[in-house]
Amino acid sequence: MRLTKIHELGSSLQKLLSTLKKNREMIPLEVLRSHYRQPYYALIRQINGTASAFVKAVLTDRLIMNPDISIEEQAAVINQVIADSGMEQQMSSCISMTYSADQLYQMALELRQKIECALWPYIDLKTCLVFDLDNPDAEPVTYNTLTRQICRNGSWENQELDLQWKFIFYPNTRIYPDNELPKEEKETNHYDYTNGTENNCTPVR
């Protein structure tokens, strides 16, 4: 993630929340909502906007998606995860009760993990078996070309492979109508293995 941008948003949010907390501690709420109505609600709007940008940055920054699948389809999955999680209301309650950008960050990370898991079937379409043509007796390596990770002993590890002079087999290729094939796959054979890869690893987060 672009941690600098996320850190900047988190710092800005924490300052705003600290101001809100101080105001509520020093001035009765009914007075804030009446006599200081304009500045009070302006602060609330600023907090809401900054919190929304902060959470969005955590959820989407460098989020891996499959370029061969429509953005609309994958976005629908993301939106459904967010709706089903019920975490939007929890996040709102979190900043209202704790005034803590750090706690909001942890909740956003939890939601991001749910999103990554929901997107994994699309990412897994780019999981392949890599055969070394110079060493045909060697076991193939399970590799994901999007995450640039290998699956070793049931866990994904960061390790980019040089695929030159390698035979690559994609066991999870999605079946497309002929007029909807991804450009780079139009002249290849397609297989439908509904159970996923043999080493059905969960994504590293």
Describe the biggest sheet?
5 strands, antiparallel
Q: How many runs of DSSP E, i.e. beta strands?
A: 5
> Into how many domains do the coordinates divide?
2
Beta-strand content estimate: 5-15%
Following the backbone from N to C, one meets helices and strands in this order, namely HHHHHHEEEEE
Give a verbal description of the structure:
The protein has a five-stranded antiparallel beta sheet, with no helix packed on it. It has helices at 3-26, 29-34, 37-60, 71-85, 87-98, 101-123; strands spanning 127-132, 141-144, 149-152, 155-158, 166-169. The protein is of the alpha+beta class. The chain has six helices and five strands; from the N terminus they run H-H-H-H-H-H-E-E-E-E-E. Helix 3 (37-60) packs parallel to helix 6 and helix 5 (87-98) runs antiparallel to helix 6 (101-123). Strand 2 and strand 3 (149-152) form a beta hairpin. The chain folds into two domains: 3-123, no CATH class; 124-185, no CATH class. Helix content is 51%, strand content 11%. The chain is elongated.
Characteristic key phrases:
disordered C terminus, 205 residues, alpha+beta
Short summary:
With 205 residues, the protein is of the alpha+beta class.
